From TrEMBL:
PROSITE patterns: CYTB_NTER. The gene is CYTB. Component of the ubiquinol-cytochrome c reductase complex (complex III or cytochrome b-c1 complex) that is part of the mitochondrial respiratory chain. The b-c1 complex mediates electron transfer from ubiquinol to cytochrome c. Contributes to the generation of a proton gradient across the mitochondrial membrane that is then used for ATP synthesis. It comes from Bettongia penicillata ogilbyi. It is found in: Mitochondrion inner membrane. This is Cytochrome b.
Length: 115
């Protein structure tokens, strides 16, 4: 193992920022793969989803990763915000304001993605 210096107060609660980045990358990649096969026409939308799940290699897996990845992303996001509140990160106004703006942007993006 590599022995690197780390603060003595670090805990598992500090992993959620990195997990958010990993979840975001997974969401982007699976979303791109799904977009390659999805048609948004009202007559063919359902059949294109069925095509992804049945005919595309591992399409069912990519679709489930994308659907469940959104839930994992928000779980990590809320734990990340909760950790920030618990440790008093709101005292750093500029960082906190950027975080709130990002939270609102993510919620708006998720709303557009669900609708």
């Amino acid at each position: 193992f590599i022995d690197l210096p780390a603060p003595s107060n670090i805990s598992a609660w500090w992993n959620f920022g990195s997990l958010l980045g990993i979840c975001l990358i997974i969401q982007i990649l699976t979303g791109l793969f799904l977009a390659m096969h999805y048609t948004s026409d009202t007559l063919t939308a359902f059949s294109s989803v069925a095509h992804i799940c049945r005919d595309v290699n591992y399409g069912w897996l990519i679709r489930n990763l994308h659907a469940n990845g959104a839930s994992m992303f928000f779980m990590c996001l809320f734990l990340h915000v909760g950790r920030g509140i618990y440790y008093g990160s709101y005292l750093y106004k500029e960082t906190w304001n950027i975080g709130v703006i990002l939270l609102l942007t993510v919620m708006a993006t998720a709303f557009v993605g669900y609708v």
